[in-house]
Design brief:
Radius of gyration: 15 Å
Structural class: mainly alpha
Distance between the termini: 23 Å
Oligomer: single chain
Helix content: 55-70%
Largest sheet: none
Number of helices: 9
Number of strands: 0
């Protein structure tokens, strides 16, 4: 994953930016959400994204996601979790709406140039995987998500978990 300071070419477009203002109609978060919704507005592109995440197909992901892929993925997840609060697909109390709150509080951000983001990615993976049973359609899938926490390739684990979360929250169908 890249860690640039811009998403979609919008300056100050990171969750930790003062200009981000998640949940507000004013700010870079809102600007990026509009671009993101447009980019992922059709079901075929959303299916391609989920497939690439779940299979960890780097070549396809590079073609699909912005240069700063982790931030774009977090925005996609954030928008999906926000929708899930309204339509009930977020797992309910203690579900992904809680992870969205953590994301808005910058729990999954890196703060120093020397930080490769591994700790923040592990936190995100842990918080996503621990709630997966709330939205999973099978015990086997839940077990496979829990195994990702022990994988040495944190980037691949985050992508695979995110893909499964998006899939189980009907991202492909509902956006």
């Amino acid at each position: 994953f890249s860690s640039l300071n811009m998403l979609y070419g919008v300056p100050n477009s990171k969750w930790s930016s003062r200009e981000w203002n998640w949940g507000s109609a004013i700010g870079t978060g809102h600007d990026c959400a509009l671009i993101c919704r447009n980019k992922w507005s059709n079901q075929e592109t959303r299916q391609n994204l989920v497939d690439a995440l779940v299979t960890d197909n780097d070549g396809t992901l590079t073609a699909l996601l912005d240069d700063d892929s982790l931030d774009e993925l977090k925005l996609i997840l954030g928008l999906c979790w926000q929708r899930g609060r309204w339509d009930g697909t977020d797992g309910g109390r203690g579900g992904y709406g809680e992870v969205l709150s953590y994301m808005a509080d910058c729990k999954y951000e890196t703060w120093f140039d020397c930080d490769d983001g591994t700790a923040a990615k592990r936190e995100l993976l842990s918080d996503m995987s621990e709630r997966f049973h709330l939205i999973s359609k099978s015990e086997d899938e839940t077990a496979s998500i829990m195994e990702l926490k022990d994988d040495d390739d944190i980037d691949a684990s985050v992508r695979k978990c995110a893909g499964r979360v998006l899939n189980n929250m009907e991202f492909v169908v509902s956006g």
